[in-house]
Amino acid sequence: MSETDILDTGVLDTGVPMARIAAARVVGPSHLEITWAAGNRGGRTETVDVAPLIGSYKVYRPLRGDAALFATARLIDEGDAIAWDGPDLEMSADLIETIAEQEMDSAEFARFLKRNKLTQEAAAALLGRSRRQIGYYLNPGPVPRIVALACFGYEALAARRRSDAA
């Protein structure tokens, strides 16, 4: 795309598809089941815990501990955001996609171990956790966000090292 195209259309195409939500429903306190229409997760349906967002931004303060208000979640702007009853209670699809990318469930954790040829003992040493905790992460349920981020970081670092060595 040339500079003239940008001036003519007012659109800058980065080649990265913007997140868009096809469907959303509340499935628990601070948990939304999201079906992605577009973006990095397009075509997937997954449960996303938005508690880190609700706890981090003042604008979401009314949602903290108010299950009835959280239950009013609905799609707006053709799937570009989710809104709740109340003033300025909107969360963009991009923001939700970002938090979804930072989550990991037990199946993803098991795939991380397999991809990286890690035993539970090696993973415990790598992640600074006990062998027992690693076993818990392999049981159904979410993996703590800090552990998921450490796993993602480990893989990014390993990929960079492979690239540098090539």
- Identify low-pLDDT runs: none
Quickly count the helices. Answer: 8
The biggest sheet amounts to:
3 strands, antiparallel
User: Which sequence of SSEs, written as H and E, runs from N to C?
Assistant: HEEEHHEEEHHHHH
How many structural domains are formed by the residues?
2
Give me the count of strands.
6
Distance from first to last alpha carbon = 32 Å
Spatial arrangement of strands, main beta sheet: 1-2-3
* Estimated radius of gyration: 19 Å
* CATH architecture tag of the largest domain: 2-Layer Sandwich
Helical content class: 40-55%
Percentage beta strand: 15-25%
**CATH class division of the largest domain:** Alpha Beta
Instruction: Name the average pLDDT.
Output: 89
GO molecular function: DNA binding
Protein name: HTH cro/C1-type domain-containing protein
InterPro entries: Lambda_DNA-bd_dom_sf, NE0471-like_N
